[in-house]
């Protein structure tokens, strides 16, 4: 897809996901199916870890986001024999047009999953060749597909199987959801989704992390995306279905592990969500749970370690008006990390960006002098989970 189409895909996703009132890093092995009729797909920066061949028919896709950024899956059908190298060249060409051999897939896509979230998505896969894409923007605003997050795979054999039983069915008539319960006990629950409207629909399952009116939640989610993941997220995306055709019955089911809290089923556009209270219900506001980080400068030689996709500290400090160094140690084998410094609350204009370091390896960054103030440091590959406060005084 071209960059223009990538931007359209992201804009459509954000409109649906935020509706409230809603490169490959290489070296990793693709997971195999965990059981008959179940296929594991892992999402990370910036690749899909998934089989190259999947049986046709109703399959349960166990989708896990093991990365540090939110991801989703847009399926496209590939006509003829085309490779990921061809797709990479295509998406990197700003003048490329949508090729005739790449068309929308006949099955639904997978809605956003936040870091650490997983869901079981059952969809009916017709035989053919397909490509999975993620069009979410990275910390620099570039769609993940341009970073290499796409994967060509084939669906083979005779279609078989049927959707299993579910806990409830929700229908979308183009405006509202019907069939969602007001309450659920904590634990796994399976949802069947049917679009009875006149246009393609979506089902986004989100956990609300702040006690606020949905209009405010929508603004906060949009702000979090537009700030390219600066600060704590206001919601957790727990999966769902996208691009679901209308008036053809149930095209997919979603199984989510619900924990105590407040959830919302969100459709396209600015429609009202269906609210579900799980267990005792709660709003674990990430803002309220995060105490302000404090630390003071201790010279101009700083150190920082990345391990298990986490930094060893959430606070760094340097003296104002003096250049300093950061000795960066990446202990994550085959995983790229970096260190970037941003003005507090600004996710788009870094005052310093260090070179990527693919572990296990290290680098010493030379950072120019900064004015006194509070900044944010992060890994630009995993900004939602690897970040902290940088104090210059």
Describe it for me?
The structure is a single chain. This protein is mainly beta. 11% of the residues lie in helices and 42% in strands. It has helices at 3-18, 84-92, 214-226, 286-289, and strands spanning 38-44, 47-49, 53-55, 57-65, 71-78, 102-104, 109-113, 118-125, 128-133, 150-156, 168-172, 177-178, 183-184, 187-195, 201-208, 235-244, 250-258, 261-266, 274-278, 301-307, 310-311, 315-318, 324-330, 336-337, 340-343, 352-353, 357-358, 361-367, 373-378, 387-392. The strands form five sheets. Strands 3, 5, 6, 7, 9, 10, 13, 15, 16, 18 and 19 form an eleven-stranded mixed beta sheet that branches. Strands 2-1-4-8-17-14-11-12 form an eight-stranded mixed beta sheet, with no helix packed on it. β25 (340-343) and β26 form a beta hairpin. It is globular. 42% of the residues are buried. Residues 1-36 have low confidence and may be disordered.
């Amino acid at each position: 897809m071209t960059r223009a189409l990538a931007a359209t895909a992201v804009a459509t996703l954000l409109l649906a996901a935020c509706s409230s009132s809603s490169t490959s890093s290489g070296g990793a092995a693709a997971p195999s199916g965990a059981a008959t009729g179940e296929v594991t797909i892992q999402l990370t920066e910036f690749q899909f870890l998934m089989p190259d061949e999947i049986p046709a028919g109703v399959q349960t896709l166990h989708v896990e986001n093991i990365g540090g950024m939110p991801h989703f899956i847009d399926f496209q059908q590939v006509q003829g024999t085309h490779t990921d190298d061809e797709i990479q060249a295509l998406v990197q060409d700003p003048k490329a047009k949508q090729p005739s051999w790449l068309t929308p897939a006949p099955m639904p896509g997978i809605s956003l999953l936040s870091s650490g979230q997983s869901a079981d998505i059952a969809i009916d896969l017709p035989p053919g060749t397909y490509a999975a894409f993620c069009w979410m923007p990275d910390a620099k605003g570039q769609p993940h597909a341009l970073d290499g997050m796409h994967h060509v795979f084939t669906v083979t054999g005779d279609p078989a199987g049927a959707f299993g039983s579910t806990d409830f069915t929700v229908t979308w008539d183009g405006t509202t959801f019907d069939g969602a319960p007001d309450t659920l006990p904590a634990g796994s629950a399976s949802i069947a989704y049917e679009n009875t409207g006149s246009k393609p629909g979506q089902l986004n399952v989100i956990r609300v992390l702040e006690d606020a009116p949905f209009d405010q939640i929508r603004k906060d989610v949009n702000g979090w995306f537009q700030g390219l993941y600066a600060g704590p997220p206001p919601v957790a995306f727990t999966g769902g279905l996208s691009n679901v055709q209308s008036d053809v019955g149930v095209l997919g089911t979603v199984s989510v592990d619900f924990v105590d809290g407040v959830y919302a089923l969100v459709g396209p556009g600015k429609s009202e969500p269906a609210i579900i209270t799980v267990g005792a219900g709660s709003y674990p506001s990430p803002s309220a749970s995060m105490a302000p980080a404090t630390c003071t400068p201790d010279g101009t030689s700083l150190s920082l370690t990345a391990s298990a996709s986490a930094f060893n500290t959430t606070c760094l400090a340097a003296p104002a008006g003096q250049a300093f160094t950061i000795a960066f140690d990446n202990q994550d084998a085959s995983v790229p990390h970096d260190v970037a410094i941003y003005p507090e609350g600004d996710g788009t204009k870094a005052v310093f960006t260090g070179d990527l370091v693919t572990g296990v390896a290290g680098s010493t960054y030379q950072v120019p002098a900064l004015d006194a103030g509070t900044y944010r440091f992060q890994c630009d590959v995993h900004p939602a989970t690897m970040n902290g406060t940088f104090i210059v005084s």
